[in-house]
Amino acid sequence: MIPSQLEVWMVLGGEMEDGSFNRTVYISYDNGVNWRKGDEMLQLPGVIPAMTECDNIVMDTMKETNLSDAWTVVSDGAARVKWSVDGDLLSWECPYIYLIGGFDSRNALYNTIWRGALNRLQSAPII
């Protein structure tokens, strides 16, 4: 099993040799040396169309929650996301992936921006 605090490369989209579009997301934990198919929860949902040549941006978005009665401090935990505490306010960075543009099977340009994040990174981290 790969520890969840490691950085990962993801590859998605593109055109196959037979001209069909790839819908499988592949991941690499070693800077692109070895690749494997991403788990089922890493695959794109059906609402995102198959595309090629889309651009992507990854941006951290600050999220916050109130700690006054929700969490207690756990010692010796490995930090998986950057977080800070100010009184009762817990803030952490959640990376969102934006997919911009791309072409459909008729070579028409998409004018859509898709935004997504791993669900577990949107929830308050256990600190």
Describe the fold and architecture:
The structure is a single chain. This protein has 127 residues and is mainly beta. The chain is built from 1 helix and 7 strands; from the N terminus they run E-E-E-E-E-E-E-H. It has one helix at 119-122, and strands at residues 9-11, 26-28, 36-37, 55-66, 83-86, 89-100, 113-116. Strands 4, 5, 6 and 7 form a 4-stranded antiparallel beta sheet that branches. Strands 1-2-3 form a 3-stranded antiparallel beta sheet, with no helix packed on it. A hairpin with a 2-residue loop joins strand 5 (83-86) and strand 6. The longest helix is centred in the C-terminal third of the chain and has 4 residues, at 119-122.
Total helical elements: 1
Global morphology = elongated
Helix content: under 10%
Structural class comes to mainly beta
Give the biggest beta sheet.
4 strands, antiparallel
Gyration radius over CA: 18 Å
Give helix and strand order, one letter per element, not per position: EEEEEEEH
- State mean pLDDT (0 to 100 scale): 80
| Quaternary structure state of the chains depicted | single chain
Uncertain stretches: none
Distance between the ends: 22 Å
Strand content: 25-35%
The beta-strand count equals 7
